Structure formats: C-alpha cells, structure tokens
Amino acid sequence: MGRAPCCEKMGLNRGPWTAEEDSVLVAHIERHGHSNWRALPKQAGLLRCGKSCRLRWINYLRPDIKRGNFTREEEDAIINLHQLLGNRWSAIAARLPGRTDNEIKNVWHTHLKKRLSGGQTQQRATAAPKRKAKKTEAAAAVNGPTTIPVSSPEPSLSTMTVATEDYSMASSADQNTTTDCFSSEEFQIDDSFWSETLAMTVDSSDSGMESGEPHCMDSASPSSNNDDMDFWLNLFIQAGGMQNLPQI
DNA sequence: AAATAGTCCAACCGCGGCGGC
DNA sequence: GGCCGCCGCGGTTGGACTATT
C-alpha cells in the first residue's frame, strides 16, 4: 500500500544519537509537542527521519522513562502479561509504567525467555547492575533538566516514581483518567502495585470502578485499543485465568 | 595484558492499520 | 471504494560492554 519509505536516506543521519541531537529533539517536543513526527525533524532542524525521532523519544528521551534493572515483580508481571497478551509488547508496556515496549521486548528475549525455557532460577533482578550504569548515566546527562527524577539509581518497587504525565497512556481518550492518576508530582507505588496491576485488568471492567477510585493503570478506560484487549482478558479470566494455563 | 565469548540494548527495518482525500 | 500518507508495532541486528580464559 502507500507506505511511505522509511526515510529519505539522502543526507539524513543514522545510527546512535548524539547528545546534541537529543537535546534538540527534547527541546522541540517540549515546545511544540509531537503532533506530526514526519514534519518534526525538519521543524526542529534535525537530520533524522521522523521515525527515528519518534523511536528515540519513546524509548529513551521521554521524561517518564524508568531506568534501571527490572525488578522481580516487574519481570513476573511481564511473564504473566505475556501469557495473556503474547508478543504485544506495547500492550504489556502500557501496563508497566515507565517501561517501554522495546525495553520489555529486550528483557524478554535476553532473560525471561531463557528463564522460562530453562527453568533456571533467575538472578538478574537482584544482581547488581553491571553495565547499565554507564549508559543510564549518559542518558541522564542527556536528559538533563528535562528529566523528571524518575527513580533512584537502583529503583525499588516501593519507592518507584513516575512522571506526572504518562505519555503512553495519555495518548488516547483516557487522558482524563491519566491526569487524575498522576496529578501529584510524585506517584508512589507500593508493593502491592503489581498484583493490583494485574488484577485491575479484570476488576475494572467486569465490576466497574467499584472502589470508586480511578485506576491509574486502568486498561479498561474508554481507550479504543484496550477495550478489545480487556474483553479478551475478561474472557480469559472468567475461563479460569492463569491457573489453567500450561507452563511454558 | 590480550584475546575471545557472551550479554545487553539502542536503533533500524518493514509491515499493518487507520484516517483523510 | 480505492489510493495515499502517516503512525505505531514487532522483529531483528550491530555495536558496545563485561566476563572469562
């Protein structure tokens, strides 16, 4: 179909982004938003294609990105969500605040898949970060003032903080809900977060908002994409949920 | 100290879906 | 109804980095 070519390769930069490019992109998005990715690089004066800019922003420069190792809870959540959703990384990422689909995909392929197939006891979640520090620091340097203090160097589940706006979820019709959820400067997530996160995919739609509290991660908010997913999630849960799933 | 193997992750590529014309 | 353009997604890869020999 009329798919646009990836980018006109003539004269456009490729490969790793420089700190300068990063700051230009961040500054431009902060000022003008990103309503049109294709036009953005031109407007910002970047020699990149729109796709590349979008990817860079979503996976790296977004202020609400949570850096650092995945916790055991997060990994478990990914495993569970993957059982439910399959390789729909973006859907999984939408339920893990601060994590990108790319990151989740990487973790899945490098750790979780092995863990599941090998049945080996996973050690990464508790292991000290070996390599990430450098790149993370670099990223922090790049992000500079645009970065909301997302997490401590070694983010713990109990003190995880996320940005005021959740870009991944605020992009659609559930923006109001999102705003409500992230209305404070810092959003504390306690240890029950992950179990609740998973539970919410069920509760919020089959029983409505019984708690009377808006759910930050509410996948059942009237977002078009999630409606279908929640329907299937509900169906799945009603059919017996995870317990009936064979172990991978 | 150097070479090699293994791991991790940022970025690219190509496809499908959606909306506008 | 069909074409076109854009966006978002998932798969893949190349290079940087660390661990081991």
Report on the architecture of this protein:
By secondary structure, the protein is an all-alpha fold. The protein has two domains: 43 residues; 170 residues, no CATH class. It has eleven helices and no strands. The N terminus and C terminus are likely disordered. It binds a DNA duplex (21 and 21 nucleotides) through helix 3, helix 6 and helix 7. GO terms for molecular function: DNA binding.
- Helix and strand run: HHHHHHHHHHH
* Average pLDDT reading: 59
Question: Beta-strand level of the residues, as a percent range?
Answer: under 5%
The tally of domains stands at 2
Fraction of residues in helices? 40-55%
How many whole angstroms does the radius of gyration measure? Answer: 19 Å
* Number of contiguous helices: 11
Number of strands: 0
Bulk shape: elongated
Main sheet properties: none
Which spans of ≥5 residues are poorly predicted at pLDDT below 50?
1-6, 120-228, 240-248
